[in-house]
Amino acid sequence: MTPHQLNTMNASVLPFTNNTPICYSINSPPFKYHPTIASAYYSSIFTTLGIISNLIAFVVLLKSFRRTHNRSRSFLIFLGGLVITDSMGLLITGSIVISFHVTYFNWRQLDPNCHFCNFMGMSMVFYGLCPLLLGAAMAMERYIGINRPFARSASMPKRRTISMVLMVWLIAGCIALLPLTGVGSYHMQMPGSWCFFNISSEGSNLAFSLLFSLVGLMCIAVSFLLNTVSVVTLIKVCCGQDRNQRRRDHEVEMMVQLILIMVIASICWCPLLVFIAQTVLSGGPLRIKYLLLWLRFATWNQILDPWVYILFRRAILKRIYPRFDWSRGSIVTMYPSFRDTVRRFTRSSLGSTLGSDKTGEAQESNVTPKSTLKPPPPSP
């Protein structure tokens, strides 16, 4: 028997009336479909591992924030917002799912008006979009800091960075509230342990499903584009012919972490986002097995994100391989062919820009300033 048939059978357990809350109008507990991937074992392991990882990362970020200089603090604030968001998402959604598997409470009796189901659905959308939006915001901050260093002051003020994090949370919160205003709707999902928006190709459910999917995919695309430009710029600076350029070790370290965050988000979230868009655009039935599978993939994003900053820091890498020189010039000097290849690759894209800046500076230095002293009066 397919999950779709089970869905129809379970929906017919309770007779549908006009008084049936909307969150139980499609799927109504109890359910007889209990896949292994949605068991209490998986939920407990994922939630516990994710919370512990984010707590460790938060302690490490606090110590680094006190030691680091102002140039890196804005990026650390973004990372702190990401860690707080991931940990809260796992704590809220995981506690509800685990509680269901432990007690097997009846949703219809516990939440007859769908308030609890709506809260969980909002939490799933909010804590799902926040990491993607924060990743795009971090990519934009690094792009401005690396490619347009004079477009901002010496470092982005703490208040501005915090306001950007709050703005991301506000945008994700507004999107999560849309089903309560009639754009989409939150429904009980099989096997009865969680609620999510209705993935359907009809009416407002189609609009909200596409909105959720496209916002996530656009964040990943923006992050990829901006990070690519920033990496090319950093390679050009680090591998340039000017040996007296200022060291950018901290910027390289931040870019490595940001790229890893982007790669993890792409691998974990793209299957679910593409699956939602494909389902609503094709008009076919929702395949619960794949929805649960891709949702587990997305959960890995909240678990792996904190380990990017815990492990991929110069302090940790120096302990793992202390004999290696982790300065910016070590890799370049070890592989001169790589340096020459990078120079040829980046010369066409960024050589003209940097060359024009140097030419302008040289012309300004060669121009002799006009004397401000008045000429002596002619002798009689």
SSE order = HHHHHHEEHHHHHH
Report helical residue fraction. Answer: over 70%
Measured between the Cα atoms of the first and last residue, the distance is: 117 Å
With strands numbered from the N-terminus, the spatial order across the biggest sheet is: 1-2
Question: Total helix count?
Answer: 12
Return the structural class: mainly alpha
- Silhouette: globular
What percent strand? under 5%
Largest sheet: 2 strands, antiparallel
Summarize model confidence as the mean pLDDT. 76
- The stretches of 5 or more residues where confidence is low (pLDDT under 50) are 1-17, 241-247, 328-339, 348-365, 367-374
Radius of gyration: 27 Å
Number of strands: 2
Question: Your description of this structure?
Answer:
The protein has a two-stranded antiparallel ribbon. It has helices at residues 3-11, 40-67, 70-103, 107-110, 115-147, 158-177, 203-238, 249-282, 288-311, 314-320, 328-334, 336-366, and strands at residues 186-189, 194-197. The longest helix has 36 residues, at 203-238. It is an all-alpha fold and 380 residues long. A hairpin with a 4-residue loop joins strand 1 (186-189) and strand 2 (194-197). Mean pLDDT is 76; it is low at 1-17, 241-247, 328-339, 348-365 and 367-374. Helices cover 70% and strands 2% of the residues. The chain is globular, with a radius of gyration of 27 Å.
